[in-house]
Design brief:
The chain is of the alpha+beta class. The chain has eleven helices and four strands; from the N terminus they run H-H-H-H-E-E-E-H-H-H-E-H-H-H-H.
Amino acid sequence: MSFWGYSSASDKREAARRQKAKLEKSGRKLEPVLIQGLKIARSFWGKGWCEHLESFSDIYNRLERGRTYARNGSVLHLGVSPGSVEALVSGSSLYEVRIGVDPLAESLWQAIKEKCAGQVASMLELLQGQFSGQVMKIVTDRATGLFPQPSQIRLSCDCPDGARMCKHVAAVLYGVGNRLDDQPELLFRLRGVDPMELFSFGLNLPVARGAELLPDDQLADIFGIELLLDE
């Protein structure tokens, strides 16, 4: 129930449910963000995305406004294409959010490939984040990794809030982190690079020695998957 303009979490969830049903009835194909529990992201890539954005103090406080919206199922649709995120967010009305992301600079991508050469054994390893700590540092580096800088992100929402980052935009940014849990390849699509290049670049080079992989039980906890171990 709303009181003096306040909407509870259950109010928001119910509003989102009604708007989602209405859109689906009209034939709209939706890809909603569905968050289970309190953690928005659980995987290496999903957590990396959220923690990267939160590391910038000038946007951290504004990001917080979107957490509840993301958890309440208010992001009814989220689509990722090269350089763009398009979403529908349920609020007092239905709002369209567009987020533009600059492609990863070719020089940075080349440097990442060279530094990771021979250290990523397979695409499965890459997408599950199942590689050495050295590679993790390279791909998540705050300045030269795969995640975009705030200056490389353009935000747009058709809600009446005049802030550059309204709660609907913030919810979508967190929604991207959640989506990367199950579809980490979307990060590469968003930045306009081919993950196969990161794997194939070092195929003819010797595998780096001394790289310590995380234990299987720790990987299972981080990525939320059940690993099949040889008995």
